[in-house]
Amino acid sequence: MLAAVVTPVLLPPSRVPASEQVPKDAQAADLLRLFQGMIRSPDYRHGPLKTLNDEFPFFVPRDRESWETRRRQLREQLLVALGLWPMPEKPPLHPVIHGRIVRKGYTIEKVYFASWPGHYVCGNLYRPQPKGEGVAGNKGEVRYPGVLFAHGHWANGRFHDAGEKAGRASVASGGEPDLERGRFFMQALPATLARLGFVVFHYDMVGYADSTAIAHTQGFRDAEAELRLQSFMGLQTWNSIRALDFLASLPDVDPQRLGMTGASGGGTQTFILAAIDDRLRAAFPAVMVSTSMQGGCVCENASHLRVGTGNVEIAALFAPKPMAFSAANDWTREFLKRGYPQLQQLYALYAAEDKVQARAWLEYGHQYNVHARQMMYAWFLKHLQGRDAHIEEPPFEPVPPKELSVFDADHPRPKDERDAKSLREYLTQQSEKRRSQWLPSDSQRLRTFRRIVGTALRVMIHSQLPQQVVPRNVPGLELPRTVTIVDQAVQLHLIGRDQERDALPVALCSPSKGGENRCIVWLHPQGKASLVVDGQLHPALRLLLAADCTVLAPDLLGSGDNALPKPFQVNKDYAGYTYGYNRTFLAQQVHDALTVIAWCHQLHKGTVVHLVGWESCGLVALLAKAMARETVGRTAADLQQFSFHTITDVADPRMLPGAVKYGDVPAFAALCAPDPLLVYNHRELARDPWPENAYRTAHASHQLHRLAGPLPAHEVVRWLLQGS
């Protein structure tokens, strides 16, 4: 049930209790505080940040239409987080296939190709031999379903040998039928699929087996990588996309029947690729998807990836296509009780309950043993070959791991192979080249620019204007509360979004004339305390009130009553462990600004809302305006010469992963076109072509005002009041 919206009662100064009257020489700002003594803010953001080991429930939307909207937004979130929004152009793969090994019923070949120039994906290609189940191609050749196999974090990846001791233990426990499969299950899986009539590409994760030019998890952890959304997981996902490109291009593969499987970290790659690549027709992520631990490796995490979501919902993006899961005695042990029932409900919205399946083997630990593999074989046979069959996995003859290597004397490692530094330089060059193509120099490019950068900004802030803002109640605190500062009644409120547990303190000042035709959202790093200077109302506030404006000043997260009990802690090992599950500090402040903007419209329907950002909150104001372009009128922002590309610390409170990739401050200013915008104290922005082009294309050049230096407060107010 939605909470009722309560419009506060504005009390005149004469009704303020005498105990709340403040002499001019008193510390008037102290009276603007809500939380004192034992009364604390109920805002959930004052508690610990979310981590990958928390709970991530999936709440099924009420209908398909709601889910399709959510699905589109979540898919955009994944693409932005992975550095793939918009999808990059794909350079030629130039695959090398060699070294055919013949086994009973199948063959193995060695493959490498360049997913980016100088960055190579290596793997083994398993094919049916002799011809198995297939369909005729255009030239009469037989085409088979294709399956990608992502190996996960087992030692040495596709070269994995569990060893004789571990192999015998797997046999003794009933997890594997014989020693060969106990030691080499990583080969047993693609070998069996090939014998069943599938072409399988078993490819390396970055840093495993033959793909070692970049060490696993290394090279993508600094501030520059964050600002450009260059992540290890993004690279690995790109390799999965290109691996699917390779598989689909083979003459003996039917590109309309593609599947993917993988366990653990390979399971992560499976459901991520299933979520963003429409070519997959069936998927089987093993021992990974759950509402608990979301993936512990750098290669499974990226900033923005799971803010407001989790693995179960991400996997749900594949619906209604066939997806099955295996669980074990690990973090997936509760999946059949929490997560899988919700997926069944979602598939029911499409009348596709038979397209989702899960089974748990709690007698075994984290594994992809013969029982789970046999479930997977049956799943792919049914949904990629149209056959209902239970498969008993046959014995097989393993290949010594060294013989699976793609590099040998005749096929040495490519001389142009790139390390992480060189690859990132190439990616940066390509990104900047593509961004220049978005320069909004005509109406079509302006639409493209707004779609690309506007979507990216929504994801980076993880917010939008709320549909409803409600009052918050705190035991022992009477709200709203009215105090008088000198001669001005100031109302103190605590508000929040209907669907969140936030609590945002706001001071509301109304003009003595009672007019409410203009509302100014006042953003300042000191919050509502900034309304008072030396016991007097801020001169700019007096000017606004005299002009019959209502002023709302929030305590954005980190200021005033919304000060954090502890500094915003960013994971020192990898920022994606923090920003992958939580809004950044800057994004939280923009989120709060959007809340106040929506509340202002809610209180005074028809009111024109203007926005002013003082000092460091100028950046907050600019980003909020860019996200609420059609809701905010005039916006004035002090940018203090700040640019995102100057950030060198991932824990910088202004860090916004992706900000440089999508054009930095000038691009966000360009998003504000065609509305009135005053940006000052920023030399770079004063001469940057992005805002100028956007405003000129929108036929609103006269609405853009850029100054390289600072501007007195009274001049800012004068500009805000123009045209009102």
UniProtKB/TrEMBL annotation:
<feature type="region of interest" description="Disordered">
    <location>
        <begin position="392"/>
        <end position="420"/>
    </location>
</feature>
<feature type="domain" description="Acetyl xylan esterase">
    <location>
        <begin position="240"/>
        <end position="286"/>
    </location>
</feature>
<dbReference type="InterPro" id="IPR029058">
    <property type="entry name" value="AB_hydrolase_fold"/>
</dbReference>
<dbReference type="Pfam" id="PF05448">
    <property type="entry name" value="AXE1"/>
</dbReference>
<feature type="compositionally biased region" description="Basic and acidic residues">
    <location>
        <begin position="408"/>
        <end position="420"/>
    </location>
</feature>
<dbReference type="InterPro" id="IPR008391">
    <property type="entry name" value="AXE1_dom"/>
</dbReference>
<dbReference type="InterPro" id="IPR050261">
    <property type="entry name" value="FrsA_esterase"/>
</dbReference>
<protein>
    <submittedName>
        <fullName>Acetylxylan esterase</fullName>
    </submittedName>
</protein>
